[in-house]
Design a protein that fits this description.
Length: 665
């Protein structure tokens, strides 16, 4: 069973234990002895099962259980044991007719076990990893306060009952006096407040984490504003100039459907930017009427940091009427895309994106086919109001290709959720992932490909003399059809693709040497992804968190140029998090402890599914301050975003006009 499933099972068992303890407590208070016995037995049993589920999760990683092992279970164990000792013998006696009903003590102790179970679950759901001392203190005090309040309430009817001589008064224990009660409660509140205060005072202290490497030095500062791109193309290259103007527009899709989009140049996707390796790209961004401002981020392209388009970090947002010129050499070959990085959960979603494709210069032609015979399509997949739009077309897109022609389909996921891609009707190779070529990828067919948010796959095949279908999310009516030339666009039946197995890229292609020693990292950062209550842009929210915090309160990761850096990314939540680092591709080392055994896999976005743990590494060779975030853009907006900072690099753009880094997404 996957760790993700065990997380769910553990949540369910935890919930059942809460229900069982409360059921036992309430039935005891109502003097329903048999019910109380049954519920109590169930509570004990479920609590023991919980120990098992937590133990299994612990085997998957300490991150999944820390707060359960250190707080939730001990608290529940103690309260549960007390409940059994206090209420158990008496219940059994009652059952044998030797006593009547439950004592206040019994009721309070069983309900307290319920509070403990609930507190543990709440801590897991709202706080998670890492557990702090203040969280533990607050939780314990709240359970204590709950017990005292319950004692107070439960004791009252008992006093009255004793007065009127009706039911049984509590055995052997007088109700707690008001003075003592107030004293205890007051004490608990003080402890809680002190704990919370201590916890909060720790918050701003660490703005940087060093991952085990040395801390900030006093090296002379470089501003990201000075880390700009080259002014000239490589020899033989040309300068390619583009003007992209961000503006609102109503875009008509081929089906006739109209969307209210935010666009670059009135088009969705924006103008396709292409270059030959070594060309200089000069892109002038203007903004007509996107009030919040826009930028251009070159997703997956390792531009100099000053060209990266991260508002509040590498530049100010481009407000209506303003402009910003990006300039960089297209040295990196492959399939990329660009998008706004300001409030991108809105901007990209509404259409502020386009493709960037760089082809090799000069290199020997792969085969004898002339360029005219080749089919090379950039296919950004985007969803507008539930409609999948591929390269600007909704519904089904038709293309033709001469049989025998080499075809390259460049799939780009510009959405925030993964897409499932199936290529039916031909064997093919996945020759590149996230723009980087794989080493000797084998031919595959009848497989599904899971394309993470932000990710790219280049699929290559020779056109057969029968039709080929690209199916997205198993929707056989949409997608793309490639027909051999002359073939009438008649019915080509496509089998159901939903049952096809998923190609595991960690076992695809052939291993090859990589340029650095991944085992001896200079720095190692662990990012535990979850949901929880945290500050996001200074406001409390039910956030998407990294190590329990939301942007911008997540400490920067400090690196020094030349460092080998390792990331461990753990997903404790029930949602997929496509992790994305700017400015550097990362090499996948392992997933859930299983090493990558195929081609070296260099990616800029990897899907960390619920319960998964990924290990990746890279060499820090591109100085700057780089966003490091979840590419589910609403998640980034809800806090799941931090910065990787090179020692000595500063930014002048953290001020108000940039909207602050907190508004980067
Ligand atoms: Cu494609 Cu920070 O983003
Ligand atoms: Cu996410």
């Amino acid at each position: 069973m996957t760790t993700g499933l065990w997380i769910i099972v553990d949540h369910v068992v935890a919930l059942l234990s809460v229900a069982a303890w409360f059921a036992a407590g309430v039935s005891l208070a109502l003097r329903r002895t048999r019910l109380a016995l049954a519920a109590g037995a169930a509570a004990v049993l479920v609590t023991l099962v919980r120990v098992v589920t937590v133990a299994i999760l612990a085997g998957r990683g300490w991150w999944f259980v820390q707060e359960k092992v250190l707080l939730g279970l001990p608290l529940l164990g103690a309260a549960g044991a007390a409940a059994v000792l206090l209420a158990g013998p008496q219940l059994l006696a009652t059952r044998r007719g030797r006593a009547a009903g439950g004592s206040a003590r019994g009721v309070v102790s069983v309900l307290t076990a319920g509070y403990a179970a609930l507190a543990g679950l709440v801590v897991t759901l709202l706080v998670g990893y890492p557990l702090t001392l203040s969280t533990a203190l607050i939780t314990i005090s709240l359970v204590g306060v709950g017990a005292l309040l319950t004692a107070r309430v439960v004791a009252l009817p008992a006093e009255k009952a004793a007065d009127t001589g009706v039911a049984q008064a509590p055995v052997g224990r007088r109700p707690i006096s008001r003075r003592r009660f107030l004293g205890w409660t007051g004490g608990a509140v003080v402890v809680t407040a002190a704990g919370a205060g201590a916890g909060l005072s720790f918050l701003p202290a660490e703005s940087v984490t060093t991952g085990g490497g040395r801390g900030r030095s006093s090296r002379s500062a470089v501003s990201v504003a000075d880390l700009r791109g080259s002014g000239s193309p490589a020899s033989g290259g040309t300068v390619r100039r583009h003007v992209l103007t961000a503006k609102k527009a109503t875009v008509r899709l081929p089906s006739g459907r109209e969307i209210d989009a935010w666009t670059y140049n009135g088009e969705v996707p924006g103008p396709a930017i292409t270059a030959t390796q070594g060309d200089l790209l000069e892109v002038r961004l203007r903004n007509t009427d996107i009030e919040g401002g826009v930028t251009l981020h070159w997703h997956g392209y390792d531009v100099p940091c000053g060209e990266d388009g991260a508002p509040g970090v590498t530049q100010l947002t481009v407000a209506p009427g303003e402009e910003f010129v990006y300039r960089f050499r297209a040295d990196q070959v492959g399939t990329y895309w660009y998008h706004t990085h300001h409030a991108s959960h809105v901007g990209v979603h509404k259409g502020l994106y386009g493709t960037l494709v760089v082809t090799p210069r000069g290199g020997p032609r792969a085969d004898a086919h002339s360029a005219a015979e080749q089919v090379d399509l950039a296919l950004p997949v985007h969803t507008f109001d539930g409609t999948v739009v591929i390269a600007g077309s909704d519904g089904q897109t038709q293309h033709s290709a001469p049989p025998g022609a080499p075809v390259r389909l460049r799939l780009i996921n510009t959405d925030s959720d993964p897409h499932r891609i199936v290529l039916a009707g031909t064997p093919f190779r996945v020759v590149a992932v996230d723009g980087r070529d794989l080493n000797r990828p084998g031919e595959v067919r009848d497989v599904g490909l899971r394309l993470p948010a932000g990710g790219r796959y280049d699929l290559v095949f020779l056109m057969p003399d029968t039709p080929v279908a690209l199916v997205v999310d198993d929707d056989r009516d949409g997608g793309l059809r490639l027909r051999p030339q002359g073939d009438a666009p008649a019915e080509a039946r496509i089998e159901d693709t939903s049952g096809l197995p998923e190609l595991d890229l960690l076992r695809y292609g052939t291993p090859a040497a990589v340029s650095f020693d991944t085992r001896n990292a200079d720095r190692h950062f662990t990012m535990v992804l979850d949901r929880g209550v945290a500050l996001v842009d200074g406001r409390p929210a039910y956030a998407q968190t990294v190590n329990g915090r939301g942007h911008p309160a997540i400490p920067d990761q400090l690196v020094v140029e030349g460092d080998v850096v390792r990331f461990t990314v753990v997903n404790r939540s029930l949602e997929t998090h496509p992790w994305h680092l700017h400015g550097h591709p990362v090499l996948i080392l392992s997933r859930d402890g299983t090493p990558s055994t195929g081609s070296p896999l260099w990616v800029d976005t990897f899907d960390v599914r619920p319960g998964q743990t990924w290990e990746v590494a890279f060499r820090a060779t591109n100085p700057g301050i780089w966003m490091n975030h979840c590419h589910n853009l609403p998640h980034a907006h809800q806090g799941m975003m931090l910065r990787l900072r090179y020692d000595g690099v500063t930014t002048p753009f953290g001020g108000s006009h940039g909207g602050g880094p907190g508004h980067g997404h």
